[in-house]
Amino acid sequence: MRAAVVVWLVAVGAGVAETLVRLALPDPPGPGALVKRAVIAAGLVVLVLALREGRTVVRWLLALLMGVVGTLAAVAEPITWLAAGGSPATSLAGAGVAELGVVGLRVTYLAAVLVALVLVFRPAANAFFRLRATPD
């Protein structure tokens, strides 16, 4: 379960880092958005750390919040941009360090979430959660 916790924390860290990198962009997040993202990140860290206790509900909450909601949030903007006729080649050619950082961090988030989902739903993890659910 340690590997899953580490990978979930990498995903949260990538989201936090993306927020910080966005501060260098022409349209940075405002104070309200920063507070909202900080609260969300803190809540996710609490959930990730609680995963070690073996509560199945925490595993499903992380899968829902980061695996579904977080992934949809991470891909919605690029999909909308592509649907509006955006050109990845042109955009990447003209991208600065901050823009490339956002792309890299988003890819890191998505990859970490995918790996973490596999780790928390593999047979060894299922056994871990069953063992922890057994009353003493």
Give an account of the 3D structure:
The protein has helices spanning 2-22, 31-50, 56-83, 88-93, 97-121, 123-133. The protein has one domain (2-133). 82% of the residues lie in helices and 0% in strands. The protein has six helices and no strands. Helix 1 runs antiparallel to helix 5 (97-121), helix 2 (31-50) runs antiparallel to helix 3 (56-83) and helix 3 packs antiparallel against helix 5 (97-121). With 136 residues, it is mainly alpha-helical. The longest helix has 28 residues, at 56-83.
Topology:
Layout (H helix, E strand, L loop, with lengths): L1 H21 L8 H20 L5 H28 L4 H6 L3 H25 L1 H11 L3
Helix pairs in contact: 1-2, 1-5, 2-3, 3-5
Provide tags for this entry.
136 residues; mainly alpha
What is the total domain count?
A: 1
Shape: elongated
Whole-number mean pLDDT? 93
What is the N-to-C succession of helices and strands?
HHHHHH
- The tally of helices reads 6
Percent range of helical residues: over 70%
Cα radius of gyration in angstroms: 17 Å
Low-confidence stretches: none
Instruction: Please give the alpha-carbon distance between the first and last residues.
Output: 20 Å
Total E-strand runs: 0
| Class derived from helix and strand content | mainly alpha
- Can you summarize the main beta sheet? none
Question: Beta-strand level of the residues, as a percent range?
Answer: under 5%
